[in-house]
Amino acid sequence: MGDLNGDGVFDIITGVGAGTSPLLRRFDGRTLKEIGQGLYAYDQAFLGGMSVSAADVDGDGLYEMITGTGNGSAPHVKVRKMDGTIIASFYAYAPEFTRGVNLITGDIDNDGKSEIVSTPNWGGGPHVKVFDGKGKASASFFAYESNFIGGFSLALADTDGNGIKELVTESYAGRITSGRVFDAKGRMLKEWFPHGTISSGGMVIAADLNGDKIDEIVSVPLAGTQSVLKVFDGGLKQTASVLPYPASYTKGINIKAVDLNGDGIKEIATAPKAGLPPQVRRFDGALKVLDSLFATATSFTGGIWLD
Ligand SMILES: [Ca+2]
Ligand SMILES: [Ca+2]
Ligand SMILES: [Ca+2]
Ligand SMILES: [Ca+2]
User: Fold this and answer.
1) Which ligand places an atom closest to the C-alpha of 213?
2) How would you write the chain as a 3-class SS string?
């Protein structure tokens, strides 16, 4: 989401998953009416899905729409103004790599313009690249061993409160589950092990959960280990942990930081990935449970995605 038309309200941009043409649509956040017509981010025949992000990459106060191709195409990134005009178009990795590219955006060098941070989809190695809005790379580094292809989770977090976000990673399955913090140039600042010596991997998100302008880091293990949710402070010290679901549950949790009560401080929403009724729970930064709801019929145990 991002403010596309400068009215101060976040607008909604939607992409599509694999299996259908890569249609990009814009909706006014105030009226929920579609802005203009949907447009194809890539060739209409491409059915590999796409990643979509919104960020102000040129510092004019309006958000641009940034897309990356999904599996089955060269790793093609396009940056568009709200009216659809393409202002950058580039390959994040060699065009021979056809598993797709994931994108995350944020201003990580504090110049008022968002960078575009790319990672390859699974199978592409832990190669992180940082681009400006024109597609010029400012950093390129491996977050883990270059031959590690298990994948990893990536979040942007200001862990020291200096107003500049760092890159925080957590490795997926296949090595000891390692959390790492990098600066915008790819220099590793810290490493920690959020879940001891497990090798099933974990995922991270980051948000300021207590309003002190330092982002907390939230981690959950992937499937295969007890699904415990942990919060770490900017110094990577664990400050809270909770089992959102029964202690025997090991199939993994989707997590998302959301500010549902509008106080400017984010809460954490959780949902089981599989094998449990679709109970979404919400916790504050100290992991005190705030509320629970069932996203669909309680008999459905296929897992719930949060967005
Ligand atoms: Ca802009
Ligand atoms: Ca920047
Ligand atoms: Ca920082
Ligand atoms: Ca904080």
Assistant:
1) 4
2) CECCCCCCCCEEEECCCCCCCCEEEEECCCCCCECCCCEECCCCCCCCCEEEEEECCCCCCCCEEEEEECCCCCCEEEEECCCCCEEEEEECCCCCCCCCEEEEEECCCCCCCCEEEEEECCCCCCEEEEECCCCCEEEEEECCCCCCCCCEEEEEECCCCCCCCEEEEEEECCCCCCEEEECCCCCEEEEECCCCCCCCEEEEEEECCCCCCCCEEEEEECCCCCCCEEEECCCCCEEEEECCCCCCCCCCEEEEEECCCCCCCCEEEEEECCCCCCEEEEECCCCCEEEEEECCCCCCCCCCCCC
